[in-house]
Amino acid sequence: MPLPNLAARVLFAVVAIPVVIAAVWFGGGALALLLAVASALAAWELCRLASAAGYAPFTWAATAIAGILPIAVWGYVLSEFAPPLLALGFIVMLAIVAAMLFRRAPDRRPLGAAAVTLFAVLYTGGTLSFAYALRYQMYTIGAAAGTALLLFPLVITWVTDTAAFFTGRAFGRRPLMPTVSPAKTVEGAVGGLIAAMLVAWGYVLWVLVPAASLAMRPMVALLVGAAISIAAQVGDLAESLMKREAGMKDSSHLIPGHGGVLDRLDSLFFAIPAAFFIFTLPSVLIPVVR
Fold first, then answer.
1. 3-class SS of residue 104
2. Bridge-based pairing state of the strands 175-177 and 286-287
3. What is the pLDDT of residues 262-288, one digit of tens each?
């Protein structure tokens, strides 16, 4: 990696990581705003990829609605009287259909435009909204507990990506999916998986128990780490497939040294919802009585 590119990556990480941790810790509007900005930018980039691939999404509609979704979830959590979340989904769908009616003539593939737009909204704002729900999961009490639980999939994703990269470079021989991402190897994927399992076990023992008073049985912790790692790797490959169809190396150049928001969050679009659903399963999280 060229030194200027590496320096840009390090500088971005030095600035971004404390901002993310602070937003997660304070929660509420700070977290909702961070998720809204990330969702809107990611939706814009996804529509950019779709346009390069020959589709014609409603880019600004997707950007706006994706940004609104985390704010709507925040309002839903605060509201004493809130409609079913399914109603929010119908409102989003009807807004896109209305845009299709007034902005696309029949010869401009309105159905395809609406489908790609809805996909962009759900793929970005829909999935990242689970981060807010995870921060305020039913077992969490206080900022430390919510932060520890939400950082769980983020840490597992980072460990998976890092371990897969170095393991792949050192031992990689067999391509994982050469038509999607030629640089990724089976050995790298396995290395990322094993590292994620071990870190998940350690994270439960040294972070989740003391910070959130939540525990997992050792075997459950290993399996949870594996499941989130697999979800993260699928998310990474899914974005690679989209970029390959669009003929683009990066989703954008918004982040110096990193490409776009979509490039940085690709794994989390899968890992965060996976963690949310796993943590709601019976007997996964065990409250620790002190």
1. coil
2. unpaired
3. 999 999 999 999 999 999 998 899 988
Please tell me whether residue 9 adopts helix, strand or coil conformation: helix
Q: Give bridge partners of residue 214 from the DSSP assignment.
A: 287
- Amino acid identity for residue 99 in this structure: A
Between residues 23 and 113, the one the model is more confident about: 23
Q: Which of 221, 250, 266 is nearest to 5 (CA)?
A: 250
Beta bridge partners of 177: 181
pLDDT tens profile 222-265: 999 999 999 999 999 999 999 999 999 889 888 876 789 999 99
Which 8-state DSSP code applies to residue 137? -
Cα separations (Å) of 191 from 21, 151, 155, 171, 243?
A: 27, 21, 16, 9, 25
142, containing H or E segment: none
Rounded CA-CA distance 4/80 in Å is 51
**Burial group, residue 177, by CB count within 10 angstroms (0-12, 13-18, 19+):** middle
Residues with Cβ within 8 Å of residue 275, at least 6 apart in sequence: 130, 134, 152, 153, 156, 224, 228
Tell me which residue of 129, 134, 74 sits closest to 278, measured CA to CA: 134
User: What's this model's pTM, rounded to 2 decimal places?
Assistant: 0.91
Higher pLDDT, 191 or 108: 191
One-letter identity of residue 263 = D
Residue 2: predicted pLDDT:
47
Confidence check: pLDDT of 43 > 90 = yes
Are 220 and 228 a contacting pair, CB within 8 Å?
Answer: no
The distance in angstroms from the start CA to the end CA of the chain is: 48
